[in-house]
Design a protein that fits this description.
The complex is a heterodimer of chains A (67) and B (368).
Chain A: E1 2-3, H1 11-23, E2 27-32, H2 35-47, E3 51-57, E4 60-66
Parallel strand pairs in A: 1-2
Antiparallel strand pairs in A: 2-4, 3-4
Helix pairs in contact in A: 1-2
Chain B: H1 6-24, H2 35-45, H3 59-74, E1 81-82, H4 86-103, H5 107-115, H6 120-140, E2 149-150, H7 153-172, H8 191-208, H9 212-222, H10 226-245, H11 270-287, H12 291-299, H13 303-321, H14 339-358
The chains are: A alpha+beta (67), B mainly alpha (368).
Chain lengths: 67, 368
Amino acid sequence: MVDARGYSCPIPVVMVQRAVKAEDPKSLTVLVDEQVCVENVTRFAKASGYSVTVTRDGNDFKLELKK
Amino acid sequence: MKKVNWMVVIAGVAVGIAALALSALGNPANMGFCIACFERDIAGGLGLHSAAKVQYIRPEIIGLVLGAMVMALAKGEFRAKGGSSPATRFLLGALVMIGALVFLGCPLRMVLRLGGGDMNALVALIGFALGIFIGAQFVKRGFSLKRTYTMGAAEGIALPAFLIVVGVAFVAFRALFKVSEEGPGSMRAPFFIALAIAIVVGALAQRSRLCMVGGIRDAMLFKDFKLLYGFLAILIVTVIGKLALGGMGWGKLTPFQLGFENQPVAHSSHLWNLLGMVLAGWGSVLLGGCPLRQLILAGEGNGDSAVTVFGMIAGAAISHNFGMAGNPDANGVVGGISMTGKVFVLFAFAVLLVISLVNMPKGAKKQA
């Protein structure tokens, strides 16, 4: 799981990029708290071959990446 | 062709048209917008520096923040936050400003100058890309100014309120402020028209996440070209606008002029244009966005960006008080920066390197 809450882009995308590169996971949960980060992480995830589901949890967003 | 995000292109087109309009209406040539120059002018208007030719309370800065704030509130994206290394951000803001003033333009003005035919902006672009590349190496390996935290609403509106107060005071009590009567500070579009145009641009820039640094940075880090299309849209609109309308009586819009020498409010000291923008690019990557983006984020309630803007204003004052800003070409003599400016730029690189290194994760290895 990548907890990128409190970080502004591009750092959440960099965190996801590092996790994907290190482990090539079939599924990954990413937490962010800015709409911009949802957009950027989603774009990166899709370009890397993942499908993305986003759920809202108060002020936070949970992205489920699945290959 | 990769999928184009149309919102960014629309925002880029709007910025390009707005900049042409503001220059036609009286802003300096190739300077419809310049976040660095305009924050510097505000510093002057407030008396923080005494460079008489660059003192004026630029409404564009006020409008960009307000437009962003209105759009953020409308979309539920206004969130007061802060606490992510504010002192460091203040310093980085100052250094980015000093670098930009060496070149005589923020990254947005660099694009506008390029669109006007000013080839010094191409030299600057090379430096800018190099600076972004350097900064990206640190970000890629885990550089972070640490996380930000939710703050009270007052923190989120501090900078917008400051700018509104300054703007209202300027309109009501102009004599209290410094106002240039010659030079670039005296070249200005009518106050309320410029304010209105900037509000619209600020709203679009917030909605689209437009950022001059992000374009090149994301292409380098992630092969993501979304923001780069915005950058290109501004450039293309500017070139077309200058070629088609420049010097043809559309207000004060000057003609497209291809070359290095005697460009408006510009100098052709190539090495320093390049190095100044390496500084601006590297610093902006560490800050998470170009000077325009900092204004927009501040409008969204981001206290980290607000303190960066304050740092930029302070940096502008320091730059002029110590004679570090670029001197334009004049009468066939190439301008450039003073020895103090050159020494400072080199010193600033050392400072950036220290900031970059001390904010890496503990035990960072060379993982790409």
